[in-house]
Design brief:
This protein is mainly α. The chain contains twelve helices and no strands. Helix 8 runs antiparallel to helix 9. The chain starts with 15 loop residues before the first helix and ends with a helix.
């Protein structure tokens, strides 16, 4: 005899404007703060025009990201309705129609292109690369073991490079590598969180999870975490601007260690942006790293 699925009360239905806003996943916009890294590493904290350019790029990538989420949620709505968390998404709940979601996505894509157009050809090419990579992820790559998390890492590299292009500064290849590894670390942590959640709820997860196991993901997370710290150390040892950047190493080590602690002790990791927004030690670590790096690069 089959056991009926437990009945879980969903939150009260949202109004259309509220549902549309939630579908944009504004908490995910924290990923796009990476576009301001160029200002920090170019020591242009006091340059108003650089802030305007970086902010234009930031808003454009927030719009581009949200457009991708809308398209993804339209495609995944039937599967999301079976998920213990994702079934509360506006499209899965029927609060936002697929047609309206696709129209909103088209408007966001158009707005993103308009915002980066004044920033130059390089910025336009990076945005096109971002769209192409997101489309490949949504349509195919998110279903391919290992390539799914590697694609997420690539999207973060595009963000970092686009932020540098927006303010016309050179960014270190070491920092791009560190960005890719850190994004890969967070993506693997997300997969681990999904595996834990699916196992606890005894409900189907995304198909790609069948290619992973907790043991495998824990091994991959360990390798990538170590690689991230080592790569950042090598960057500071070889930095052309200032080897004083070595003093920022403790911030990186603590941030990685803290996330690993939360991931294993509290089973966090399915939503990395939630950890970044809510965990005070990690927030202080990020602020401390950014402030220290900005001061070092400004005075050397």
């Amino acid at each position: 005899m089959s056991v009926p699925a437990p009945v879980v009360d969903l939150p009260q239905r949202r109004s259309l404007p509220r549902a549309a806003f939630v579908a944009l996943r504004p908490r995910q916009w924290t990923k796009n703060l990476l576009l301001f890294a160029g200002i920090i590493f170019a020591a242009r904290i006091g340059d108003l025009s650089s802030w305007v350019e970086a902010t234009m790029a930031f808003v454009a990538y927030c719009a581009a990201s949200s457009a991708s989420y809308l398209v993804n949620d339209v495609r995944d709505a039937p599967h999301d309705r079976l998920h213990p968390v994702k079934r509360a998404r506006p499209i899965a709940r029927g609060e936002l129609s697929p047609r309206l979601a696709e129209l909103l996505a088209a408007l966001l894509i158009f707005g993103a292109v308009l915002l980066v157009a004044p920033l130059g050809l390089a910025s336009i090419l990076f945005l096109c690369t971002f769209f192409a990579l997101q489309a490949a992820y949504t349509l195919t790559l998110k279903h391919v073991v290992l390539l799914d998390v590697m694609t997420i890492g690539g999207l973060f590299v595009v963000r970092a490079a686009a932020g540098a292009a927006a303010v016309e500064v050179r960014i270190s290849p070491w920092l791009l590598l560190c960005t890719a590894l850190l994004a890969l670390f967070l993506a693997l942590a997300k997969r681990r969180g999904e595996l834990v959640l699916v196992g606890a709820e005894a409900t189907p997860g995304r198909p790609v999870l069948e290619g992973y196991s907790l043991a495998l993901v824990d091994q991959l997370v360990t390798v990538v975490a170590a690689s991230t710290v080592i790569s950042y150390c090598l960057y500071t040892f070889t930095a052309r601007d200032s080897k004083a950047m070595m003093v920022t190493i403790p911030f990186v080590v603590f941030g990685v260690f803290r996330y690993l602690l939360l991931m294993h002790r509290r089973d966090l990791g399915e939503e990395p942006e939630e950890v970044l927004l809510r965990d005070l030690p990690i927030l202080l670590c990020i602020v401390g790293w950014a402030a220290t790096a900005a001061v070092i690069l400004a005075v050397t």
